[in-house]
Amino acid sequence: PPLEKKEPIGRVGEGENFSRYVGATRFDQLPISKRTKTGLKAAGFVKMTEIQRASLPHSLCWRDILGAAKTGSGKTLAFVITVLEKLYRERWGPEDGVGSIIISPTRELAHQLFDVLKAVGKQHNFSAGLLIGGRKDLDTEKERVNDLNILVCTPGRLLQHMDETPNFDCSQLQVLVLDEADRILDVGFKKALNAIVSQLPKHRQTLLFSATQTKSVQDLARLSLKDPEYLSVHEES
Ligand code: ADP
Ligand code: MG
């Protein structure tokens, strides 16, 4: 890639000045990188939806989030922007390995959110991979997986890599996202999720988004959420 002028990287409030952004209604009012802003604009995203307005001022201070908003309310961008900004601010590079894992309950949903990540993250230099099983050859995937910065995956396939891929390393994980968290926390995924979480570093940001609010204290405990911000949006966005 051509040499790019390094943008200065400002500090987002460590909890004290995030309130400045609570009233923001457009993405370009947020303290996010030019790269992400360009990606958002190119994809046609200008005004934030309700859940994005409610969550981004908190998630961009790296707080844990438990966000509930109905299907179609724009939850994907809320976590995709946070993941990109976190890694950008950490100056995440090719050698840093897996910085973020985004878990989705189905292949189809993983595909959809991967497309959003690609579009909005186009100006960034992160490598991202879709690990969802199916026809993709596991051995080829194993060779590449350690070079990826952002993993978008289904629980089963992620666990398969954790168990079988030599040197699979997520010890530097910065952000864990559970999309459709209520479905992933459901009994069907319980064993896989517990096995996954037990292999992740506890010191990280965790973002849970779903259509319904997850209330189980037990679930939140096993995910090691730290003082999460509970957000529930019911209005039309
Ligand atoms: P959810 O995950 O809450 O069901 P999605 O993230 O899939 O919702 O978004 C639903 C639709 O809304 C998508 O087509 C998406 O492109 C669109 N969308 C999301 N955020 C915005 C926005 N800020 N402005 C315009 N359209 C948006
Ligand atoms: Mg969604």
Automatic annotation (TrEMBL):
Residues of the DEAD-box RNA helicase Q domain:
25-53
Question: Which branch of life, at top level?
Answer: Eukaryota
Instruction: Give the residue interval(s) assigned to the motif Q motif.
Output: 25-53
Q: Which residues form the Helicase ATP-binding domain?
A: 56-231
Written domain comment of the UniProt record:
The Q motif is unique to and characteristic of the DEAD box family of RNA helicases and controls ATP binding and hydrolysis.
Q: What's the stated role of this polypeptide?
A: RNA helicase.
* Similarity comment: family membership: Belongs to the DEAD box helicase family.
Under what name is this protein listed? ATP-dependent RNA helicase
| Species of provenance | Dipteronia dyeriana
Q: What range of the full-length protein does this chain span?
A: 43 to 279 of 750
